[in-house]
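[User]
Protein folding is very new to me. Any chance you could explain this protein sequence and its structure tokens? I have pasted everything here:
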Amino acid sequence: MERWYVAETHPQAEAKALEHLARQGYAAYLPRYLKNRRHARRTETVRAPLFPGYLFVFMDVAKTRWRAIRSTIGIRHLICQGERPLAVPTGVVEDIRAQEDERGLVPVAPPFRPGEEVRVTDGALRDQVGWFQRVADRERVVILLNMLGRQIPFTVPLGAVRAAF
């Protein structure tokens, strides 16, 4: 029975692994989203893996030579339980694919609306109340805090921010 399985890739080698799996005849899927990346005072929007370091492979482990995947360029290993690959629960990959837009990108909704009041719950800025500005990347958000008589942007971990009540 064909199912989706997860392959871990080498760092930043998801696209290379996807290409080499396709060359070998495997059906693979790498969900992507648009990410804002800052470098050298420039901000650019790039296509980035939704799950960095991982991609999905569709196969029947009873009929496919799945052990060959482990030696594919860009692949570190298949996620296994014991000696056999561990299947992704039915419907998970299909749900991700169903959310893709016409460009093949999965939209990632910001956790708060711009201007929404938030409270920092952890770290040096704990208990500070500010306003959500934007998502910096998958793990961090930019908030504005009133300090020294003006609003100053701070980048904090997403998990350290909650809606202020």
Residues 117-163 form a domain with the SH3 type barrels. fold (CATH 2.30.30.30). The chain has two domains: 3-98, 117-163.
